[in-house]
Design brief:
This protein has about 475 residues and is α/β, with parallel strands linked by helices. It has helices at about 40, 65-70, 70-75, 85-115, 130-135, 230-245, 260-270, 285-295, 305-310, 330-335, 355-360, 380-385, 415-425, 440-450; strands at about 1-5, 20, 25-30, 55-60, 80-85, 140, 150, 160-165, 170-180, 185-190, 215, 250, 280-285, 320-325, 340-345, 370, 390-395, 395-400, 405, 430-435, 455-460, 465-469. A seven-stranded mixed β-sheet has the order 6-5-4-3-2-1-22. It starts with a strand and ends with a strand. The structure holds zinc ion (ZN). Zinc ion binds near residues 62, 64, 166 and 192. Keywords: Hydrolase. One of its GO terms (molecular function) is RNA endonuclease activity. It holds the Pfam family Lactamase_B.
Length: about 475
């Protein structure tokens, strides 16, 4: 008998961590952190709910923090198996986890100074840089798409990674294993699924139908995306208007995939002659710069036209006027560059990072356009601004919001409702299990699925619940 137990991303979008057990061996599908506010983040400090020493392997779908962020903790608590993923995912996870360790260390030092004055102690970080480096030693098995590997543990479980089209190197996880009746069974875990028309990534690989169990994400299970071209057109228009008026375009971006996509769109505008070559574009995020380099190293995982360009030195991220600013003094020097200019900086939700320096300098100027291209969680500075705050606090100072604020939602790296439904239909599953969605998204999508696939059993996963698969 095989089972699946949910230890995260059930009833919420973050903290993906599902325990698959078959024939006495246990494997994890992802091991990510909870994100989005103190209540959720508190859960990262709670016990896993299983013994990490007994887990034989982690099948990691992709390098986003909410999918890999608890791996160093798993290793700290005795996990000795292998983390198995694609080559880009291994490299992305290394950068993302190291960055997290640095941020945790800085946060701890600040908190420590603050609490020490009150005679209290700050809580120690979940893990440090040395824990991440030790965890990276467990990433000693890489897999290519469509290349089945038999997992260790003697349970005759075969794992195949298939392209999920979400970010560089992202994979769907296909497991084949003997069922209770001795017949071979197939479980497909989508990880995060991409949309069909992305500039850098392939469309998700079609599911290997029929599958017995389809474990699928439902981030946008209750929403349709508008076509990407409309969002791109809106983005281009806003950039050109601001540049024509000599202003600054500020784009808070997520370091992985979104930064590279925005660079790609700006590069196209330059190559098409729509945007003047001399208008400077700053990628002001060391993490995003490091991640961009991985697109060069792993270009064969991108769309053919992108891969071809990258392999012969025609990078879609290199164009006249682009500056990758790494050193803090280079970052500060951007303030002295007269407009028009375009600045991409993290963090995506404006909760930290270099974007806040730019906001302090530019948010009070009507000549600035702030283009928000990603989800803004409750409680973040970004959410406050997109909800229309007239004044916000940045670095303890009050700043008036006089800039034009534009939210463009079409750049999501997740499949919308239509694409999710088409994928589920194509899989011809006997049982669909919904994870990685807010309750309303998962419920809405489950109703839709029950109508579309009347033969299939549909389950909305609950935290801690075990299903026979
Ligand atoms: Zn993701």
């Amino acid at each position: 008998m095989a089972t699946l137990t949910f230890h995260g991303a059930a009833g919420t979008v973050t903290g993906s961590c599902h325990l698959f057990e078959a024939g006495g061996a246990a494997y994890l599908l992802d091991c990510g952190q909870f994100q989005g506010g103190p209540d959720l983040e508190q859960r990262n400090f709670a016990p896993f709910g299983f013994d990490p020493r007994e887990v034989r392997g982690v099948l990691l779908s992709h390098g986003h923090f909410d999918h890999c962020g608890r791996i160093p903790l798993l290793v700290k608590q005795g996990f000795q198996g292998h983390v198995i993923c694609t080559p880009p995912t291994r490299d992305i996870a290394r950068l993302i986890l190291l960055d997290s360790a640095y941020v945790q260390r800085e946060d701890f030092r600040t908190e420590h100074r603050r609490l020490a004055r009150a005679g209290r102690r700050a809580r120690a970080p979940l893990y440090g840089v040395e824990d991440v480096l030790e965890a990276m030693d467990r990433f000693d098995r890489v897999v290519e798409y469509h290349a089945p590997v038999e997992l260790e543990g003697g349970a005759r479980v075969v794992f195949t990674a298939e392209d999920a089209g979400h970010i560089l190197g992202s994979a769907q996880v296909l497991l084949e294993y003997p069922g209770a009746d001795g017949r071979s069974r197939r479980l497909l875990y989508t990880g995060d699924l991409g949309e069909n028309e992305r500039p850098l990534q392939h469309a998700p690989a079609p599911p290997p139908a029929p599958v017995d169990v389809l474990v699928m994400e439902t981030t946008y299970g209750d929403r349709r995306h508008r076509p990407l071209e409309e969002s791109v057109a809106e983005f281009r228009a806003a950039v050109l208007e601001t540049v024509a008026a000599g202003g600054t375009v500020l784009v808070p971006t997520f370091a992985l995939e979104r930064s590279q996509e925005i660079l790609y769109h700006l590069g196209r505008m330059k190559r098409e002659g729509v945007l003047a070559p001399e208008v400077p574009v700053f990628l002001n995020s060391p993490l995003a710069i490091d991640l961009t380099r991985l697109y060069h190293r792993h270009c064969r995982f991108c769309r053919p036209e992108v891969a071809e360009g990258l392999s012969v030195g025609r990078s879609p991220f290199a164009f006249p006027g682009v500056h990758f600013t790494e050193a803090p003094e280079e970052s500060r020097a951007i303030h002295n560059v007269p407009g028009p200019k375009i600045v991409l900086a993290g963090s995506g939700m404006m909760a930290g990072g270099r974007i806040r320096h730019h906001l302090k300098h530019l948010l009070w100027k009507p000549s600035t356009t702030l283009i928000v291209v990603g989800y803004q969680a409750e409680g973040t500075l970004g959410r406050e601004i997109v909800e229309g705050a007239r004044r916000v606090e940045v670095f303890g100072e009050e700043v008036a919001v006089e800039a034009r604020v534009l939210t463009i939602n079409g750049f999501s790296a997740h499949a919308g409702q239509d694409a999710l439904l088409a994928f589920a239909r194509a899989a011809r599953p006997r049982h669909v299990v919904l994870v990685h969605g807010e309750p309303s998204a998962a419920e809405t999508f489950s109703r839709l699925l029950r109508g579309a696939l009347p033969e299939a059993r549909v389950t909305v996963a609950r935290e801690g619940e075990t299903l026979e698969v």
